[in-house]
Write a structure and sequence with these properties.
Elements: H1 2-34, H2 38-51, H3 80-92, H4 97-116, H5 122-135, H6 138-145, E1 197-200, E2 220-226, H7 240-254, E3 262-266, H8 270-281, E4 289-295, E5 298-301, E6 304-308, E7 321-323, H9 324-332, E8 337-343, E9 363-368, E10 378-381, E11 384-387, H10 388-400, H11 407-419, E12 442-444
Parallel strand pairs: 2-3, 2-4, 4-8, 8-9
Antiparallel strand pairs: 1-3, 5-6, 6-7, 9-12, 10-11
Length: 452
């Protein structure tokens, strides 16, 4: 009996020592990450994973009296493998050449293993997409972004060190601490039913040329399309026009876009969208930066992405649509760098989903408002609907307040803005951080630190 009790006690003590080992290593990883020591953070999280190999979405119970049940870190998930990979991603920012490539490949291996073990959530997927982005592996990147079933959307991840302040936002691009904006500018939408309207802002502005203290850069241009109306079933997006105007004003207020360089199309047909793109392309120079923002219906036919016009009545009628590649080509043939954002539903139709087409040429970045098979949502503000992606986009521009917006950090800020949205807001179908998750920016021929 005494021998049995001794063995039981030894087992408990060994288990306790092992628990203390991974807990200590994990805590050291968090501390290192908080002070920006990402290499050391990665080593600490790997040490924790060595003692406790599997990540867990559930709370971890701690040893103690049965009457005093306690959980580790107040019920936080255990994400040693995920945070080791994430820390590795952060390390690659300061590496070059073969060393950078080797670590990126190791990170992708670790994250793919988490997916295979079904221990991956949204952050794991987005970090893996970004790793493939940096490796230039467009095939793997597209596979991930267009296959949301790879992960468990309900899987909890430890996000303590993964906040809007941690993705590597350079100090010089942080917003000023004095007199921050307290609200989004009020806009008056065009009359309901105002179709096929193109707005090119005049040189006499309602918004000052240097609004919010952000200097205007003359080489920055924007094409904003808001299609509220649609003849396709379920294609009406009642907030699309308001969203387009909000984006236009935010670019002028917070991102250094001259009003005369921002072209806005409300309820556009394919013809009017092409005309607006051509008119804008005819004005740009070789070093131009072009931002495209589309709210409306998109579809993928035969592997090609199309933007539907308000007169599109059949989902297969490409004559009434604009090919995404055609829109890009109008600008990249002039030597412009293109940043495109799409707020559109992404249902799977005939094993195809809008946004899966990856540009083969040009310097292009694109970001989708939701993962494949996802639905875009909205929230009510001042009794008017606003797209969740648009709201997050505007909040991110307000926060950065710079005419050199870093695309990678901006993408993460948009992601977290949607996640932390106030729980008390009134939301529409598909809205809410648990149901709408944007993709990370997908780049072709563009560096991770590119700016728009």
């Amino acid at each position: 009996m005494l021998r049995a009790l001794s063995l039981a006690l030894a087992t408990v003590l060994a288990a306790s020592a092992s628990a203390q080992a991974w807990q200590k290593a994990y805590d050291e990883g968090l501390q290192n990450a908080r002070r920006g020591a990402w290499k050391q953070a990665r080593e600490s999280f790997l040490a924790a994973a060595k003692d406790r190999p599997n990540d867990s979405s559930k709370p971890t119970p701690l040893f103690g009296p049965i009457t005093e049940r306690r959980t580790w870190r107040d019920g936080a998930p255990y994400s040693a493998n995920l945070l080791a990979a994430y820390s590795g991603m952060r390390v690659t920012t300061d590496l070059t050449g073969d060393e950078r490539t080797a670590l990126l490949k190791q990170v992708t291996t670790e994250l793919e293993a988490l997916i295979q073990k079904k221990q991956a959530g949204q952050l794991a997927l987005l970090t893996l997409v970004e790793a493939y982005n940096r490796l230039g592996d467009t095939q793997s990147r597209a596979r991930l972004q267009n296959t949301p079933a790879l992960i468990d959307q309900s899987w909890r991840e430890d996000l303590e060190i993964v906040s809007p302040e941690t993705p590597g936002l350079p100090v010089q691009t942080r917003p000023p601490t004095t007199n921050p904006p307290t609200s989004t500018p009020t806009t008056t939408p065009p009359p309901a039913g105002n179709q096929n309207t193109v707005y090119t802002n005049p040189t006499t502005h309602d918004v000052p040329p240097i609004a919010g203290g952000v200097p205007i850069l003359p080489n920055k241009y924007a094409l904003i399309i808001g299609n509220r109306e649609s003849r396709l079933p379920g294609g009406n997006l009642e907030y699309a026009e308001d969203d387009a105007i909000r984006i236009r004003e935010s670019l002028q207020n917070y991102a250094g876009y001259a009003p005369e360089n921002v072209q806005t199309v409300l309820n556009g047909t394919a013809e009017s969208i092409r005309s607006a793109a051509t008119a804008l392309a005819n004005r740009i120079g070789e070093d131009a930066v072009v931002m495209i923002y589309f709210t409306g219906v998109g579809t993928n036919l035969g592997g090609k992405d199309y933007l539907a016009g308000v007169d599109t009545a059949l989902a297969t009628d490409v004559e009434s649509m604009v090919a995404k590649e055609e829109l890009y080509r109008a600008f990249f043939v002039k030597g412009a760098t293109v940043f495109a954002f799409f707020q559109a539903n992404r249902p799977m139709v005939n094993n195809r989903v809008f946004g899966e087409e990856i540009p083969a040429t040009g310097s292009i970045c694109q970001m989708q408002a939701t993962l494949a098979e996802g639905t875009v949502g909205f929230a009510y503000q001042n009794s008017r609907p606003v797209g969740l992606f648009t709201d997050a986009f505007v909040r991110a521009l307000e926060k950065f307040r710079t005419n050199q917006v870093p695309i990678s950090e901006f993408g993460w800020e948009v992601f977290y803005s949607i996640r932390r949205r106030a729980t008390g807001s009134s939301t529409g179908t598909g809205s809410g951080s648990s149901l709408q998750t944007p993709t990370v920016p997908s780049r072709t021929g563009m560096a991770a630190d590119a700016r728009f």
